[in-house]
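--- STAGE predict ---
source: upstream dedup step, 1 unique chain passed
mode: sequence only
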Amino acid sequence: MKHLSAPLALLAMAGLAGCGRQTAPAPEPPTAKVDGETISYPAGAPQLAYLTVQAAEPRRVAITHLTGRLYLSDDSTVRIFTPVAGQVTAVDVDVDQAVSPGSPLAEISSPDYGQALADARSAEANLAAADKALERSKELVAHGAAAEKDEEAAQAAYGAASAERDRALARLRLYNGSESGTGEVYTLRSPLEGIVVEKNINPGQEVRADQMLANATNLFAPLFVVSDLRRLWLQVDASETDLADLQPGQKIRITSRAFPAKVFDGTVANIGPSLDPATRTVRVRGVVENPGKLLKAEMYVSVDVLRDESKVAQAGVEVPSKAIFTIDQKSYLFVELSPGRFERRQVEIGTEKDGEVPVLAGVGAGQRIVSEGGLLLQAVLDPSN
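--- STAGE serialize ---
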């Protein structure tokens, strides 16, 4: 028992000594140094671990997430009606067929055209007869065999015949015909190069020159629609927040789900003068180059509107929306001047989009900003706010 009591006594004494020793207090975290709008932390300060710093990026040169609809360009599309009445005897083209200027589209047996052709030929013959009569009158007057009034009458008859010939030829040209034509078969031709995208005509069909004035949709439809599909028009319904970044002449890039790996180029042609009261959007028209004719009218496409390169430097930067905080209706963020040293700056911002806020003034591209933790710095800089 004596041998056991000694170790127990030693243990008891060690326990009493341990109870009397005090644990050293943890060191206080270094405090921030505040100087006006600037906060500084020493290297290795634990507060820095709560801050995320990144470089301010130049604003993207594209306005993304716009959707557009393609349609035929009015500048390179013609809707063809017949200028004469008659019966269709032949149709020479079909949908998706390429045509050139002057290519025959259909043939129409038309008494109207036949009458116009006969009038032109008759007028030409009458003019030739009047010309000969005038020459004879001049010769007779020159030899004293006729009075001057006969020459004047022949001159008047020649003038009337010439006017009638001009009228008859003008009517024939309205039909795109000439006096060398034969019969009463009128050939309807394409006025431009392109593709036949619509056909509403069949052999045996009766057509009229005034059918385009009819109120019935089935009668109002053109006989042919020919369009140059190497260029299409684009309609984009832009929101109010996009208007500041849109202007005529800007470059646009178009992508389609049908051809996801291909980008088509174009330009902004026109911006509507007013907002649609129902959708609160502005109609923007663009022109899209379609050299391979891959894009089709009525396709829905994605549109990126590219800013003018000369103005990109003036467009400011983009920062995460978390970097911005507001005091008294003014916007601020913190800029890292050097490691551990931050400055609060008032900035001018635009409209937030996709988690990014455009900063138009106050921060330059490449400057390092506090993207997360700015409110912690604000609490240290100005606890009252």
